[in-house]
Amino acid sequence: MTFTVAVAVLVFCPVAGTAESLPTKMQGIAIDAPGGPEVMTLRTLPVPTVEANDVLIEVHAAGVAVWDPQIRKSMQWVKPRFPYVLGSDGSGVVVAIGSSVSRFKPGDQVYGYCWDNLKGGFYAEYVSAPSDCIAKLPKGISLEAAGALGASGLTALSGVDRALKLKRGDTVIIHGASGAVGTLAVQLAKLRGARVLATASGEEGVALVRRLGADVAIDGRTGDIAAAARAFAPKGADAVLAFAGGDALEKCLDALRAGGKVAYPNGVEPVPKSRPGLNLVPYDALFGDQKVQWAELNRAVEASKFEVPIAATFALSEAADAHRRVEAGGVRGKVMLKIR
Q1: Which residue in 31, 97, 107, 270 has its CB near the most CB atoms, within 10 A?
Q2: Residue 327 belongs to what domain range?
Q3: Per-residue confidence (pLDDT) for residue 19, from 0 to 100
Q4: Under 8 Å CB-to-CB from 171, ≥6 apart: which residues?
């Protein structure tokens, strides 16, 4: 049985008022066909319905992921349905809950990562999503910063903990460390006690990852990765966590010891080349019980002075410009849409 906003279990919320005062229309960015940034238009859309296990969120901020432009251009990895509202992660305030939801109540500040949500993404004033893909904000993280934490945080945590199982004393090269996922992975690897050599984008990227805790940082395009790696781990590094591909990544792999691991999220291109004696571990951000993952991420974030770097912020109406910024490359941290 399904439930609409009108019949879902709703109580007074100081942000949106009573259930009866919730709007039926919202502003959102939608596309009607694949194409360039210009296919994204701001339009009036119905506020999505709330089924038994859903939460309705008044969106505060939405992350612009590196895969969003590819989805916009080709509808790759998702089910094509139009109008399509992009945005797999973001943050906001709960304004309505379905009848089966007990983990949240109206007024809760939350963030989430909901891949290809059937009811639309976070590039809108409201999103209705299954409660399992939503979590309460960890302590110490603002509502705006949390908009950039969901997808990137789970991807970084899965790489550090699940794919590589980093522990105290391990040596790891994080390639592409100044991007949205890499900046979080550096902090999580240091939290686990690993020593980190980070490759970053430009002088600003190098300075950023050093500030976030990297033991050694080098420009991945112009620096001597081989020399830096030899000095960092003379007997070879234990692992590489790759968030970018290409020749620079292959140089990182040259620095691994025999039996070392190479982990990379599915979607990194070109993928690392297979080599004798190296263990390649492709992985996804999501695995198993997503509620368990949220709890693990929140514990990690709350265990340190965690920072979510924001590279640039755009208004919802400027979503096309946000995509152009992501496609230009060299983004240090994550690009955001500020919706409220």
Answers
A1: 97
A2: 19-149+308-338
A3: 52
A4: 194, 195, 197, 232, 233, 237, 238, 239
Contacts of 199 (CB under 8 A, 6+ apart): 173, 174, 175, 176, 177, 217, 218, 219, 220, 223, 225, 248, 252
- Tell me if 292 is assigned to some domain: no
State the chain's maximal CA–CA distance in angstroms.
66
Nearest partner of 133 among 153, 144, 117, judged by Cα = 117
Q: What's the average pLDDT block by block, 10 residues per block, for the chain (340 residues)?
A: 38 43 94 97 97 98 97 93 96 98 97 96 98 97 97 98 98 98 98 98 97 98 96 98 96 97 95 93 92 97 96 98 97 97
Cα 337 to Cα 207: distance, rounded to the nearest angstrom: 25
How many domains, in total, are found in the chain? 2
List, in sequence order, the alpha helices (H) in the chain.
68-74, 143-146, 150-157, 180-191, 202-211, 225-232, 247-254, 290-302, 319-328
Q: Is residue 124 part of a domain?
A: yes
End residue of a domain, out of 267, 283, 299: 283
Does residue 270 share a domain with residue 166?
yes
